[in-house]
UniProtKB/TrEMBL annotation:
Plays an important role in the de novo pathway of purine nucleotide biosynthesis. Catalyzes the first committed step in the biosynthesis of AMP from IMP. This is Adenylosuccinate synthetase. IMP binds at D13, E14, G15, K16, N38, A39, G40, H41, T128, R142, Q223, T238, R302. It catalyses: IMP + L-aspartate + GTP = N(6)-(1,2-dicarboxyethyl)-AMP + GDP + phosphate + 2 H(+). Binds 1 Mg(2+) ion per subunit. Belongs to the adenylosuccinate synthetase family. SMART domains: Adenylsucc_synt (SM00788). It comes from Streptomyces griseorubiginosus. GTP binds at residues 12-18, 40-42, 304, 330-332, 412-414. It is found in: Cytoplasm. Gene3D superfamilies: Adenylosuccinate Synthetase, subunit A, domain 1, Adenylosuccinate Synthetase, subunit A, domain 2, Adenylosuccinate Synthetase, subunit A, domain 3. It is an enzyme of class 6 (ligase). The gene is purA.
Amino acid sequence: MPALVLLGAQWGDEGKGKATDLLGGSVDYVVRYQGGNNAGHTVVVGDQKYALHLLPSGILSPGCTPVIGNGVVVDPSVLFSELNGLNDRGVDTSKLLISGNAHVITPYNVTVDKVTERFLGKRKIGTTGRGIGPTYADKINRVGIRIQDLYDESILTQKVEAALDGKNQLLTKVFNRRAIEVEQVVEELLGYADKLKPYVADTVLVLNQALEQDKVVLFEGGQGTLLDIDHGTYPFVTSSNPTAGGACTGAGVGPTKISRVIGILKAYTTRVGSGPFPTELFDEDGEALRRIGGERGVTTGRDRRCGWFDAVIARYATRVNGLTDFFLTKLDVLTGWEQIPVCVAYEIDGKRVEELPYSQTDFHHAKPIYENLPGWSEDITKAKTFADLPKNAQDYVKALEEMSGAPISAIGVGPGRDETIEINSFL
Ligand code: GDP
Ligand code: IMO
Ligand code: MG
């Protein structure tokens, strides 16, 4: 069973980086299939902490080939600063492969992201300001720039002209900004071409050949299910498909090849940016989750909004991704609460609702219905097996598993690689 997808089951920041790194030592390829440097994946190895944005977390495992798939959007300046940062710390990054079909985040995409948000004012999405949405918009509008375009100056110039035509009108006439010069953009992009060249590959062919040879391929999602452009809390979402199907389109691998889909699930809930969040807490419990869980954005440094676990969301993630397993993270953060509320259903306009409503208006009105589960006070960070957990922590995990609709195969009890309880092996 060679191909596994590992993705966020909530609104991102579930601990995907740690989970990917944990498996990285046993897999041959780790592939990012969507998103870009809006992601912030933390990996802790011994006393070393790494924050990865664009690079797959497998880059820290020497035996593993990291791949940036066609579905990813690549900001070359960020790519090189991330690679340099890792090289300075002694990490070998020479095996990296980047799809020639991946789209490039250009400086004008970053500008458009920022001015659009400013223009939206109170209705802003709260994006990471990294140019993600405008780059995917150009891709869908068929005026995007791909990595392969950097190797043909004439084509690149024509494409940048086409992309800037409408944007300069918008920037000067609507947003009151200066027009962006085609030549300047082309020059900057061409400046990356030679440095990128050693990494550019036909990643679809490489990955499919690897799968034919029974190599193990892990697809690492960015963001999370509820941030998915199709299945998330639109319009407060990102502009790609973090859900399982995105791994197929974003890497060029057929669904028949995927054998396991692992949802990374935090033992409580967090969200960054705007949008509905039924279990959000505005009291000292929310503050305590933020403090104990270290819930501050890896990419933008914003405080994360925090709330109790939401089983309606988890069930939804199981359904839209066809999850085979969950990896439950940050259970240790819940140590010390006497009672832990868990949202089992919503009340919407006086009615009990068990599943995520498809209507945005209903979701905005959803009030959580809580069940209180008994807490524990023992330190669980040294637990190595399920049996090492206190009875109430075991019962909390079992209750979440039952409500969420897929087995919990691993539990995180700390940020480090070895602070993990493995229940069923993923490989
Ligand atoms: P990602 O975007 O899904 O990779 O998650 P982030 O790295 O943005 O946020 C997860 C944070 O939780 C990071 O600081 C991790 O080091 C940390 N983390 C991951 N798993 C655990 C865990 O089981 N317990 C604790 N205490 N921290 C964890
Ligand atoms: P990881 O991979 C949490 C959120 C932003 C904003 C919305 C759209 O670390 O889990 P974008 O810049 O993508 O257009 O912003 O999506 N967002 C994330 N939230 N974790 C992430 O990544 C995120 N990437 C984007 O805060 O609400
Ligand atoms: Mg993150």
